Amino acid sequence: MAYIDIYNLKTNPTFKNRVTVAVAKAATDIFNEPNSTTNHAARVTWANAALVNAETVAERMLWSIVQNPTIQSNGLDSTDNDIQYVVNSNIDIFATNKPEK
Prior knowledge:
Radius of gyration: 13 Å
Distance between the termini: 29 Å
Strand content: under 5%
Shape: elongated
Number of domains: 1
């Protein structure tokens, strides 16, 4: 995928909305995971922030999401499962790193 295509995917309103839903779903799922889950406290903090403002959290994650090879291969045709998988795979990274202001 060419850089401009990656940028266009990242800024596509429908794709952004799908990532936002995946973020909200992931946040909800975290509240149901055992306290013994690795990095649980940071994950809960991330989940709280994600449910308060899923759009902002999704926007922070979008560059990471669009770098995934499966997402790049399928672009706007990426499945909800693929998007969810990539969001879930990035939670610990974003939960343990404070965003730049």
